[in-house]
Amino acid sequence: MARLTLDDVTKEYRDGEMSVVAVEDVSIDVPDGDFLVLVGPSGCGKSTTLRMIAGLEEITDGEIRLDGKSVNDASAQERDIAMVFQSYALYPHKTVRGNMSFGLEESTDLSDEAIAETVEETAAMMGIEELLDRKPGELSGGQQQRVALGRAIVRDPDVFLMDEPLSNLDAKLRAEMRTELQHLQEQLDVTSVYVTHDQTEAMTMGDRIAVLNDGELQQVGTPLECYHEPNNLFVAGFIGEPSMNTFDGQLEEGAIVIDSVEYPLSSDARRNIEAGTDLVLGIRPEDVRIVDSRSGDRQFEAEVAVVEPMGNENVVHLRFDGTTTDGEFIATTEGIPSVSAGDRVGVEFPEAAIHLFDGDSGVALKNRELSFSGTRDELLS
Ligand code: ADP
Hints:
By secondary structure, the protein is α+β, with helices and mostly antiparallel strands. Helices cover 24% and strands 33% of the residues. It is built from 9 helices and 21 strands. The strands form 4 sheets. It has a 6-stranded mixed sheet, sandwiched between helices. It has a 6-stranded antiparallel sheet with strand order 13-12-11-14-20-21.
């Protein structure tokens, strides 16, 4: 096991005159035994980062350290790192046993008996001991993924890297494997980096998540920190499903003016924000209250555009008067839906739940108050 450190790591791909900066000045520290999820949209540099850690890609600038020691010049074989890919990458002509033994035969001096024993122990832990004599073609996708994980784990690596390992599985199996992987990681206590574009995986699996966009690190924090205290508009929009509602506006005389809506801001909330500043107001769908009155503080009239009943909750699409589909925002409510398309309702954005972002840079100027809770109970009573 090891502590993994990325220090201002940059990767630039050059092809003649053309150059792509895939990863720029990324610094992340993964303590020994931690599970870090690297998340971001497609093309943001996740795989490149993982491949640099594995030693499969040279780094252009910066340093990667294992337990404080630079591995910049170490080849992939010299790093004690195991990687699992989305494509499983199993040897088709070898049995499961052969696939799992191969790495140990190549990289250790263990005896055949010791290898057989380690492989069998790991197979039992992964629940694949029945499959040891089958070939990959005779296995389901989920079983192949288990074998790929088992093959990586059997080597007892310092660091375990996973690149979208569950994305070829169907939704139900993916959810099962998510939990299983978490248990496994806790059991093995091995430093792990897990790449995904799926924010649900990031929220549910990681001790901490690192959010990347356009090759740049946006935030590293626990899932709930990223959810409730995003550094910027990108993280606020990327983490959470449905996404945070956002409204462009401008601070004018104690209120944010958003088209036809004036949202009063207490002096506390607008502290350090100059009048005239372009702002983005953000509020999570679960914090938008649907209320009877439309005249209270921070309550506005809106029209219900669509209601999507999901069983456990309803996704209510709303819009203020005079706005188009682009201006729709979402409230999630529990229980049986009590509003339907076409209804005119009151909505309240409690000030304790709102986020404010700088309109130009997207930097968070104010995040929600964490003590604020209980919103759901009061929705649609
Ligand atoms: P992700 O894994 O987040 O989808 P990648 O790390 O694969 O993103 O890619 C990041 C960026 O680097 C993308 O713009 C991609 O086109 C570019 N890129 C990746 N590999 C290469 C390569 N071998 N040559 C040139 N550009 C590349």
